[in-house]
Amino acid sequence: MSFSHLGLSDKVLAAVAATGYTTPTPIQEQAIPHVLARRDVLGIAQTGTGKTAAFVLPMLTLLEKGRARARMPRTLILEPTRELAAQVKEQFDKYGAGQKLNVALLIGGVSFGDQDTKLTRGVDVLIATPGRLLDHTERGGLLLTGVELLVIDEADRMLDMGFIPDIERICKMIPFTRQTLFFTATMPPEIARITETFLHNPEKIEVSRPATTAVGVAQFQVSVGREPHEKRETLRRLLRDAKDLNNAIIFCNRKREVALLHKSLQKHGFSVGALHGDMDQSARTAALDQFRKGEIPLLVASDVAARGLDIPAVSHVFNFDVPHHADDYVHRIGRTGRAGRAGTAISMVAPLDYKSLAAIEKLIGQAIPRIDGGSESHVDSAAVPTKDETEHPRHSRARDGAREGGREGSRGGRKPRREREPRRSGGGRHPEPKTQSPAGAFTPAAAAQPSRTPSIGRHQAPHAAIDSSTEPADHSHLPAFLLRPIRARV
Ligand code: AMP
Known about the structure:
Layout: H1 10-19, H2 26-36, E1 41-44, H3 51-62, E2 75-78, H4 82-95, E3 103-106, H5 112-121, E4 125-128, H6 130-138, E5 149-152, H7 155-160, H8 164-173, E6 179-184, H9 189-198, E7 203-206, E8 217-223, H10 228-241, E9 248-252, H11 255-267, E10 272-275, H12 281-293, E11 298-302, H13 303-306, E12 316-319, H14 326-333, E13 343-349, H15 354-364, E14 370-371, H16 387-391, H17 397-403, H18 444-448, H19 463-466
Parallel strand pairs: 1-6, 1-7, 2-4, 2-5, 3-4, 5-6, 8-13, 8-14, 9-11, 9-12, 10-11, 12-13
């Protein structure tokens, strides 16, 4: 299948050819003809699947006819974060270079005046975060009655961030006759509910299972103590010893932790940037640009700030904190191992994290091998969760962790994100925790698979369970001390 069979205009096909892409990705192949036929689309796809072009390319084709009127955009794309909105605009700039379209970005942290001037000129494509968009409609500077096509992107993330009430308000301002394209990586019940309200007889397209982790990403866990300084010390050692670490994203659960870790790494001489929702827009953009260009090899980030960002070729992902929501683990490690490249994801696991880790292993259907963090004091065979413990974490150390004052009380239920764009209304809902998984944690199948990686620590690399190729193992991506066997305390 080539792009020319999808019904795109000649101009758009020329722009695609100029980028060097020859074959549409599955979401593009399936979605583009329906978008061009003016059907509603429900796309279940993660970032990295080419989903942005799946709506940008047909939109460009449809927008070739007609003209924008002042303050009445013709199309609207809603994104949960400023960075994602900016990234979508980049794609319009790239593929729409040959068209005279007005594309405007309405995001927080940028002056109202400039945005207002753009709106007055007339906008073909408006890309916005919900809060800033509502600020403009409330000031009377923006009318949504001319919107013919609405894109709601990363809907499950919108839910996490408490944006759904805002989205519902926005939808009520747009004519019922509009075309709606709705993209989500996962389908919690609340999202399923709103698709019934927002979409009319949609074409449903699902391109990959939501909870699969990328093949080719070697995943490991390293035990750390509870004290923050111990975790930072282990992280520094991991960073220093990794031989082929080109660049890495280091994830923290909280904005405050991002800021602290960023400072600490700088103090220890690392070239590092930070990305979290409380930073002002220019600092966020600058950090991301520097990281993309390779000027800084390390980026400490929170989930919300980093979700969905298209950063090619990240060699390593570190979870400085194990994420509380198993879905976030999948998204985080999806930053590496992109486009068939090898990647390494290392999670730093403190005793309080056992429950979250068990939920992750259940979701991905694999045990994450435990390796030596380089500090003997933390290597404790008794600390390795057994199969029984991971399946029944409430009767194990995880419960002890909760008793010790951790934020473990949600029993796997999702809490609304703390980190949000400046303007929000309503709180996030709490979708049901994911209960299905392809297999339980520590499946015998996973353990029995031949491994590309000879024994590292106690378990085999989880990607071996997916990829049983007999190629010789390549350990060059791992720091030397990770390859030492675990010394069990007896
Ligand atoms: P997305 O899922 O939209 O974030 O896209 C992920 C990456 O895939 C981006 O860097 C795109 O430029 C790239 N991409 C999109 N479509 C194609 C295609 N047909 N062939 C190769 N790469 C693509």
